[in-house]
């Protein structure tokens, strides 16, 4: 499984129209391949939309995209509002769930970390060890690393019913000694990875997002 994560910066005050047009076009696009999630930013870098597309592999991605364009209904007619576009192909960690249509929000915390070159195996070992206990406090939507695009980055996405629930879950997990993964790595005597940057944003789903 691969995930294509597309992040668009859009013009201020355009979000409602962008989501309207995207949702209309998606009614046709989903017959070819469905979204995993569609969010816009609420806290952090504003005026962003993030759409996530799951595929079995790159060949399926290319086939579905070509078929969607050939249908005449894709891409959505939002070009006049887009300031910048970025796309990444991401692969899941072993402990990452498959992103399925469900409700775990409506608030999602999307944290993206940049790690030093060569540190990915250490990251995977620590996170695969820590996540099974962390998800007892709040559900994990995804844990991916970037294979194509901005490399040496990984993203973890958590769903919460409220922002207060986010704070409570993080505090309880830390108090239980099961989070962050660096603390688990130290406790287990396994190497901790070197991080060089961390980003964070709170996003909320559109009405047509399969993940709510």
Describe the fold and architecture:
With 212 residues, the chain is an alpha+beta fold. It has a single domain (2-205), classed as Alpha-Beta Plaits. 30% of the residues lie in helices and 34% in strands. The protein contains five helices and eight strands. It has helices spanning 15-29, 58-70, 120-134, 163-175, 181-188, and strands at 2-10, 37-43, 48-55, 82-92, 107-115, 140-148, 153-160, 195-205. It has an eight-stranded antiparallel β-barrel. Helix 3 (120-134) packs across helix 5 (181-188). The longest helix has 15 residues, at 15-29. The relative contact order is 0.22. The mean pLDDT is 97.
CATH topology label? Alpha-Beta Plaits
CATH architectural designation: 2-Layer Sandwich
Uncertain runs: none
Number of helices: 5
Task: Note the overall shape.
Answer: globular
Core attributes:
34% strand; globular; Alpha-Beta Plaits; alpha+beta; eight-stranded antiparallel beta barrel
Topology (SSEs and partners):
Blueprint: E1 2-10, H1 15-29, E2 37-43, E3 48-55, H2 58-70, E4 82-92, E5 107-115, H3 120-134, E6 140-148, E7 153-160, H4 163-175, H5 181-188, E8 195-205
Antiparallel strand pairs: 1-3, 1-4, 2-3, 2-8, 4-6, 5-7, 5-8, 6-7
């Amino acid at each position: 499984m691969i995930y294509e994560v597309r992040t668009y910066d859009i013009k201020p005050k355009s979000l409602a129209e962008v989501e309207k047009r995207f949702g209309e076009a998606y009614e046709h696009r989903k017959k070819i391949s469905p979204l995993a999630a569609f969010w816009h930013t609420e806290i952090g870098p504003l005026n962003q939309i993030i759409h996530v597309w799951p595929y079995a592999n790159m060949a399926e991605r290319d086939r579905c995209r070509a078929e969607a364009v050939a249908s005449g209904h894709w891409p959505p007619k939002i070009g006049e509002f887009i300031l910048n576009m970025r796309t990444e192909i991401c692969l899941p960690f072993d402990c990452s769930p498959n992103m399925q249509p469900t409700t775990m929000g409506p608030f999602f915390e999307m944290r993206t970390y940049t790690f030093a070159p060569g540190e990915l195996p250490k990251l995977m070992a620590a996170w695969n060890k820590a996540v099974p206990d962390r998800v007892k406090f709040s559900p994990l939507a995804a844990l991916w690393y970037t294979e194509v695009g901005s490399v040496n980055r990984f993203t973890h996405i958590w769903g919460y019913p409220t922002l207060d629930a986010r704070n409570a879950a993080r505090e309880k997990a830390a108090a239980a000694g099961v989070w962050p993964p660096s603390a688990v790595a130290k406790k287990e005597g396994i190497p901790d990875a070197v991080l060089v940057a961390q980003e964070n944003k709170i996003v909320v789903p559109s009405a047509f997002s399969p993940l709510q």
